[in-house]
């Protein structure tokens, strides 16, 4: 690639910073990486020039956030006049109508080819009907669209009538933790005391940000209203993570003997500790295209119980590493949890199936993902 690639991710912190690093470190050529000032992962390779520009997250009020974001985009558009770029790769829309206009500006005035990664078909937050309208226009405008599964590609074609030839299926890789074993071990004694109640139990966990689309409220109702779960002294439910949905009530989990619930963010050491003491990780999602949480859990070889939505169940088609239910419904989830409590030997067999886990890790290999992405860039230069 003689000209540079401009790779834009306004949300490049936490898991999204890990995604960007993992992808960009497997792509050759000159890359301008435009990211958040909160980028907090490893130093990027020398061929990637990092520009920490987006600072909208530091503001609390939405109008100020929006103004900051739009000003940054306008400043970026001026920089693009000076950068010899062949392709612009956008990871997320933050203000869809504004972002769509920026894409058209880049294409018409700057004659840029624009690639967009559709991590989800529509944003999880905001007015979905308005987003549907603008994303329909955007999907037709992009020169190429990257999706992480054939299921997502088919849904975009079906919903928005987009030409399938412009949609490329490139998997989302596993998201590793940036943490040494020494760092983990330094916290282990304290965490052992804090979570002594988990030892020797069958532990079900749902960790990280909690949202309505993730079905956490469904899980809470099933556990608290089912005596076989709520009163089981051999089982524990752990739900820890910041609750993002204001209208999602999880207070019913408070005060139950075999539940640990906390509405807060947790450090990586604690997250890893809980994964390593989890018997089954729960993903009763109502809707999703691809789950970063699941791809993080896979790093610790934790068996999964998930709903068959989007491409969430894809790892189970690669190797037998868990169980799925068809729908995010109370009856299905209740029956699955009760079944697993009576079949601990199945859980242990999956956790110890090293061949299956190696197969899954190979399937989500970042080197292959980087090579596919680079070939897509090169195809747009021809």
Question: What portion of residues is helical?
Answer: 40-55%
CATH topology of the largest domain: Rossmann fold
End-to-end distance, in Å?
Answer: 10 Å
Largest sheet strand order: 3-2-1-4-5-6-7
Number of contiguous helices: 15
How many domain modules?
Answer: 2
Shape summary: globular
Q: Which runs of at least 5 residues are low in confidence (pLDDT < 50)?
A: none
Question: Tell me about the biggest sheet?
Answer: 7 strands, parallel
Instruction: List how many beta strands DSSP finds.
Output: 13
Mean pLDDT: 93
The SSE order reads EHEEHEHEHEHEHEHHEEHEHEHEHHHH
Task: Give the class from helix and strand content and strand pairing.
Answer: alpha/beta
Q: What is the CATH architecture descriptor of the largest domain?
A: 3-Layer(aba) Sandwich
What integer value in Å does the Rg equal?
22 Å
Strand percent estimate: 15-25%
């Amino acid at each position: 690639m003689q000209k540079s690639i401009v790779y834009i991710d306004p949300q490049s912190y936490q898991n999204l910073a890990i995604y960007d690093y993992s992808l960009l470190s497997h792509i050759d050529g000159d890359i301008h990486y435009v990211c958040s000032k909160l980028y907090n992962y490893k130093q990027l390779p020398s061929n990637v020039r990092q520009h920490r520009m987006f600072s909208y997250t530091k503001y609390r009020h939405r109008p100020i956030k929006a103004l900051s974001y739009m000003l940054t985009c306008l400043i970026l558009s001026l920089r693009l006049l000076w950068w010899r770029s062949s392709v612009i790769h956008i990871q997320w829309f933050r203000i869809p109508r504004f972002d769509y206009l920026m894409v058209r500006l880049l294409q018409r005035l700057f004659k840029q080819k624009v690639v967009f990664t559709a991590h989800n078909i529509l944003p999880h937050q905001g007015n979905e009907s308005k987003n549907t309208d603008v994303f329909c226009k955007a999907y037709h405008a992009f020169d190429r669209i990257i999706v992480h599964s054939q299921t997502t590609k088919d849904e975009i074609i079906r919903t928005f009538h987009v030409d399938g030839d412009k949609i490329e299926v490139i998997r989302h890789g596993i998201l590793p933790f940036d943490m040494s074993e020494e760092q983990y071990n330094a916290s282990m004694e304290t965490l052992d005391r804090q979570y002594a109640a988990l030892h020797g139990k069958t532990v079900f966990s749902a960790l990280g940000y909690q949202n309505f689309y993730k079905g956490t409220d469904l899980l809470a109702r099933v556990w608290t209203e089912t005596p076989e779960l709520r009163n089981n002294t051999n089982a524990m439910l752990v739900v820890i993570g910041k609750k993002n949905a204001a209208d999602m009530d999880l207070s019913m989990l408070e005060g139950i003997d075999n539940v640990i619930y906390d509405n807060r963010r947790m450090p990586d050491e604690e997250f890893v500790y809980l994964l390593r003491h989890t018997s089954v990780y729960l993903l009763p999602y109502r809707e999703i295209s691809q789950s970063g949480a699941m791809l993080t859990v896979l790093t610790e070889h934790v068996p999964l119980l998930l709903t068959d939505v989007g491409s969430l169940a894809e790892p189970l088609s690669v190797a037998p590493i868990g169980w799925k239910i068809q729908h995010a419904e109370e009856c299905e989830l209740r029956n699955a949890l009760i079944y697993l409590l009576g079949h601990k030997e199945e859980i242990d067999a999956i956790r110890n199936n090293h061949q299956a886990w190696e197969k899954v890790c190979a399937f989500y290999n970042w080197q292959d993902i980087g090579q596919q992405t680079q070939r897509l860039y090169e195809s747009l230069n021809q």
